[in-house]
Amino acid sequence: MLRIAKILLILSIAMWALLGALGNVTDWDGTTGAVKAATSMSTFDPVPASGRATSSPLVILMGAMFITLLKIATGVLCLVGVWQMWSARAADTATFARSKTYALAGCGVAMFMLFAGWIVIAETWYELWRSATMLEPVLGSAFRYCGMIGVIALFVGAREE
Questions:
Q1: Residues 39, 67: contact at Cβ < 8 Å?
Q2: Counted domains in the chain
Q3: Residue 63 neighbours by CB distance under 10 Å
Q4: Which of 10, 47, 113, 161 is deepest in the core (most CB within 10 A)?
Q5: Would the pLDDT of 161 be above 80?
């Protein structure tokens, strides 16, 4: 039963990532608009760090691609992990533990994308924490997603006794 719960949790991360990537692709203007809002630092009053602001189409494209491609990578890795975990669900403890590799790699990619992309780059470099309009919807969501994925990774990665 515990193994099934772990498999379903990894499946939920795969679904989150792939549905998110689909949304990024089908609403590309919204995706690039969110990145532009962060990089242009236009959602809050000018501050000394405003010199970092950019509306460079290349920077915006790179940010949108970073988010979208890493969501796809997360989804694919987690789906491979789900398949391997499902295939090993009745196996011995060591075999099931080895089957988690891709699932945990997918969790790691997701946490990297959320932490590096939103917390390090958007919040720290582009000071998105100053933005009343972006603070909760963007940074709050990134924090929640990263935290939940981290907790799931710890649960899935825990050794069985």
A1: no
A2: 1
A3: 22
A4: 10
A5: no
Tell me if 89 sits within 8 A of 3, measured CB to CB: yes
- Look at phi and psi of residue 41 and say left if phi exceeds 0, alpha if psi is from -120 to 50, else beta: left
Distances in Å between the Cα of 64 and the Cα atoms of 28, 117, 138, 157 are 8, 10, 14, 30
CA dihedral of 57, 117, 97, 79, whole degrees rounded to 10: -40
Q: What type of residue is 118? A: W
Q: Which amino acid does the sequence have at 48?
A: P
- Output the pTM of the full model: 0.93
pLDDT in tens, 68-117: 999 999 999 999 999 999 999 999 999 999 999 999 999 999 999 999 99
**Domain limits for position 112:** 2-157
* Residue type present at position 66: F
Are the C-beta atoms of residues 58 and 32 closer than 8 Å to each other? no
